[in-house]
Here is the input.
Amino acid sequence: MSAPLLSIRLRYDEDVVFARQRARQVAEALGFDAQDQTRIATAVSEIARNAFRYASGGNVDFRLEGVTQPQVLSIEIRDEGPGVTDLPAVLEGRYRSQTGMGVGIVGARRLMDRFTIESRAAGTVVAMQKLVPRTTPLLGADAVARLSDRLMRQAPRTAAEEVQQQNQELLRALEELTRRQGEIAAINRELEDTNRGVVALYAELNDKAEHLRRADEIKTRFISNMSHEFRTPVNSIQALARLLLERADGELNAEQERQVLFIRQSADALSELVNDLLDLAKIEAGKTVVRPGEFAVADLFGALRGMLRPLLVGEAVSLVFEAPDGVPNLYSDEAKVSQILRNFISNALKFTSHGEVRVSAVASPDGRSVTFRVTDTGIGIAEADLERIFQEFTQVENPIQRRVKGTGLGLPLCRRLAELLGGGVAVESRAGAGSTFSTTIPVVYAIPATNGASTWQLEPMRTPVLVVEDSAETILIYEKYLAGSGFQVLPAYTVREARDALAAVRPRAVVLDISLRGEDGWGFLIEMKRRDDLRDVPVLVITTVEDERKALALGADAFCLKP
Here is the structure.
């Protein structure tokens, strides 16, 4: 939507004053605070004065752009004069004239969110935009028409009243400046006192953090080394027990066979403990490597079904895998997802004496993640123990627990693995009523950013394109589309990452999503177009927000709706 609010013809000196008044009235009606009202009125006054002085008149048009919040106040001042000489020098702040032309243009540009000027021998067009406050309700065409009618009926002030208004604004600005200077001086004094204490506190914290880091490193190294040392004798015990049970050296009597079975079971339990300890130690040391790849959930379920069916010891318990209809393929580490589910399922089978263990998968409504659930009809877990079971070496007291031994490391390991993949785990259970363990895994594994743009490896034969997009799936699509082209995708998941990228790399173009999670995409667009070094970088807005006119008014070079 682009709706006219007000139009003013500049023919006399008084019209410049009138344009300033109207600019303030429009800004006030749209909910701008007093400071922004003054900024807008001053910018309009400066450009209108230039139009009247150098072109003997012109037009000032006020419009409201956009169909989504925040809308945009757009002001266009057009004249038919001889144009602005040496416009680049004016915009760079290098040009000064005796009348002050150039200072007004540069000052007006600083006061508005976006400022463009086109000057030719046939005239000059200045366009200025300011985002309407988010607290202002969305105005439709009818509301804009009523507002325009109300503004037209407002009586103009005299020149003397306008001068008095400007003096009051100047006095308020001076009072605010004096107050802020006093506050800054007081804050500086407080900071000087606080800094000394903070420096001492940081020194103490750094010392303690270093002790903790060394202790954690020693613990991780100890667990890792000891686990490796344990693995060799445990493997030997398992192999020797297997040889004895296979009668490689002769027959065993019943008692001997019973004893060797106990040895093998103990060795298997110890092997499981060693493996879990090693996995935890690797994660804590940051040495676990995620190897993402595309896989189908149906194939994963098929592998798990064949792998875990031997754990069923009778017909009292059935293992059911629901068909994962509507679940997309995952781009993640299949081995780690499988490890999480194997642990959930094996636990469910251990503590379910009759009924079923049901495995299912469902995609989230936005399609960004998949939740796997393992539901059993077993003994359940008391509410007070639901959090304890995710602590290392913790096991809930139960008669079955004495019969079915475990390491107490499986569930903590599952939580760590899920977090490593960008997801999490959860449990729902009541004592005697079964349990449901679940893990939510992103459809696309997002490689975690470390230091933003500094980690990017620019390919010398390709042109960098910055993609500001919070969806890892969408960034993957861009990468696939541009894989065989001369363009290299530089992903930024947040506005902060995008700013870091622009500080290190000058992209040939920017692809911007407006609907970033909790961040202001419109503000980032304005920020780019206000910077002299980035103003000429093309910005392609690709978003679900249907507001093309607003995007173009704020400086976007092109606009597309997803998908």
Observations:
- Confidence is low (pLDDT under 50) at residues 400-404, 450-454.
- The radius of gyration is 35 Å.
